[in-house]
# Entry
Amino acid sequence: MNSKTKGVLYLILSILLVGLFGTLSYVGIGSKHLGSLKNIRLGLDLAGGVSVTYEAVVSPEPADMQQKMSDTVYKMQKRVEGESTEASVYKEGTNRVTIDVPDVDNPQEILDKLGKAGSLEFKDPDGKVVIDGSQVKTATAETQQNPQTGINEHVVALTLNGKGTKNFRKATEELVGQEKPISILYDGNEISAPVVQSVISDGNAQISGGFKTYEEADELASLIRIGALPLELKNIRHNIVGAKLGLTSLNTSLIAGVIGLVLVIIFMIIMYRLPGVASSLALLMYIVLVLLALNVFNVTLTLPGIAGIILGVGMAVDANVIVFTRIKEEIGTGKTVASAIKIGYEKALSAIIDGNVTTLIAAVVLYLMGSGTVKGFAETLGISIVVSMVTALFVTRFIMTAFVNMGLDSEKLYGIKKERPAINFVGNIKKYILISSVLFLLCIGGLVFNYVKDGAILNYSLDFQGGTSTSITFDSSVKMDEKKQEVEDLVQSTVNLTPEISTVNDQYKVIARTTKLSDEQEKTLHDELISKLKVKAEDIEAESISETVSSEMRKDAVVAVLVAGLCMLIYIWIRFRNFAFGASSVLALLHDVIVVLMIYAVFSTFILVGSTFIAVMLTIVGYSINSTIVIFDRIRENRKKAGNRSDVAELVNESITQTLSRSINTSVTTAITVVMLVILGVDSVRQFSIPLLAGIICGAYTSVCWAGTIWFHLNKLGRKNKKRR
# Structure
């Protein structure tokens, strides 16, 4: 087989694989359609539903706390299984349990039901409670032989605790011989009504006679077992999202993603010609592989998660841009295209790995320290980073090799990087100081202004401040000013609190924030909104967070950024074997963090600081480090070539200039996808995307202008200290 035929086959194989994986991600495998898009688990912000976190009320903590929490998780899981097949219950920390029930039409009803401390009751014919679920120790299904008929029958065997034994003995003594039942009610609904046939004095009872199959007996036993919770629980955080609102968020984010992807593909083909075509096919492979991975690993996809996938597009492009820049340089030195491709990948490998590892560190920190949508973002970002690196290093290279084998090896198709005079980046430090000083002063001024005006340096969302937020989406025909006043008056009259009212005019949404309401107050307000304002339940979103939780989230945000920065510093220090590289990277990313903080401060009217604040900051930290590493990798390479060359400033300027096109093009492609989220995304996505966009722009400025310059001066200071010794 000649190389041209092999190249054609490679290209056809690549296209077929993209098509195959794309088909799998859409259709799935087998009768259950495993791997299909429709089987990806959607978070509450996309599917609608309810999420609630309870905290155990225990003082002092019992010795068997761990077992009681495990029982609580199990019983809560059983409670919600009938509401949604995607419902999940999991423990947080040592004394909290979170319940997520997505894709339901009646989230408020589910929240009300979950709020009941115990739901199992045994009642006599007069309606008096004989025992409740807390007095039942065990309930199991058994099959035994009836002593009178000799026929095997299915029964439910009950064992009661001391209090239950006493109460049940008294009740059965009164009812025996009267052919009257004791009704068993679960969540207020009768699930069984066995007739009392004898006095139960030892706490061991049997329910028999009405089960056709063992499964029927086992189902009743399960309901009895899960009827009462072993701990008293307090609602400390919950969130209700209407299904229609979730669907709108999903559709707009997907549209933004598709448009962003198309624009990135066009940009890459224009800028990099044939390699741009190869990277575009690899990008399509990246998308379908990420979707398949989400399905295989059962990751819950959230709105920030979609942003993570889109951000991964920028990361995948970044790896390709680094390689393509190297290939152009090698072609410029007289290498053949085939040789340039081989050498280009070899020289780009360290920068790609280091950049992706540092961003992965941010994702790991987010996963370990975040919760809810932030944790979902971390999972999606982590998957995106790994897949983007694989597609860039292997898929793109495979396709480019196919092009070369097909005879598409003209230098014009790949481009030649011409040498350009080095720009004096190091010598412009005074200009950088001026620009950055203005940005820092804006940050400080914004923080001070906010504190004087509102008593807080930033506009905290419920995540960081605590309280209750109720959002009502109206029809587009209403007058928003009138609805804003109606909502304010209704909240004030219903819960006797003056709410903080805000609007999202392009979505016809009114948001009322108060201090944290009780479950009863919130239910009353929910019913009043439906009754008085004539809105549907699906148009109402509610979120409530205790001050304890919000305080913890504020602390976690600071700790997460510090931990991520420290881990990155250690990694870069080890990889580059030079403390100045690590210190310069951290100082540069602190610059970016301050600038992003400035965005939150200056635009605090419509950008809130909440749980996604952690995701934004750590994403910017990872992105900034990624860009800086590419420049440092080139500085390290050029230092080896130069040997004992004395003009370090010229070396730094050359290194930054050589990587300048990569820095600009990567920032542009990543910004394209984020801009689409800003333009087309819903309000919650914009809250995430606007500061992220600012961080991307600032990250490019910091990496190009500050990182190398700081390293130069730190290195210069280090050499002076050595001479003094």
Notes: The chain has 20 helices and 15 strands. Residues 3-28+31-38+240-413 form a domain with the Multidrug efflux transporter AcrB transmembrane fold fold (CATH 1.20.1640.10).
